[in-house]
């Protein structure tokens, strides 16, 4: 597997990402329980949106330069305990750095709004920003 240029953190719109970014963002309940920060590659984002943000109208997407977090990433198979099997998506990047993700690690943040569309339509418009 080749290393990605970026990894991504999806955050529900119910947990707004402050601007400017603080040194450390609050962890999600899932990240707290898991003991690491759940990330996705660009290719994994469609499945993550479908399985965890299917009913959301908006989502924050944090783009993280992989080289900035590489030393703390473990590539792991999803346990499928939360959303079921995620076949074909491969290993996921999990960030084990004591729960720190903030201004030093995050390169940029966008908000994707569905506005009645499905996530596939939103993703088709995000191709320039989303680096595969």
UniProtKB/TrEMBL annotation:
Transmembrane segments: none annotated. It holds the Pfam family DUF952. InterPro entries: DUF952. It comes from the Eukaryota. SUPFAM superfamilies: ADP-ribosylation. PANTHER family: BLR1139 PROTEIN, DUF952 DOMAIN-CONTAINING PROTEIN. This is DUF952 domain-containing protein. It comes from Mycena pura.
């Amino acid at each position: 597997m080749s290393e990605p240029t970026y990894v991504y953190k999806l955050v529900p719109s119910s947990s707004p990402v402050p601007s400017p970014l603080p040194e450390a963002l609050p962890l999600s309940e899932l990240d707290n329980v898991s003991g690491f920060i759940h990330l996705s590659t660009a290719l994994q984002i469609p499945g993550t949106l479908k399985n965890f943000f299917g009913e959301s109208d908006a989502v924050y997407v944090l783009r993280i330069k992989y080289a900035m977090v590489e030393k703390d990433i473990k590539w792991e198979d999803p346990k499928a305990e939360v959303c079921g099997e995620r076949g074909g998506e491969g290993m996921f990047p999990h960030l084990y750095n004591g729960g720190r993700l903030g201004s030093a690690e995050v390169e940029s943040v966008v908000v994707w709004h569905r506005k009645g569309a499905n996530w596939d339509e939103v993703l088709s418009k995000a191709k320039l920003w989303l680096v595969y």
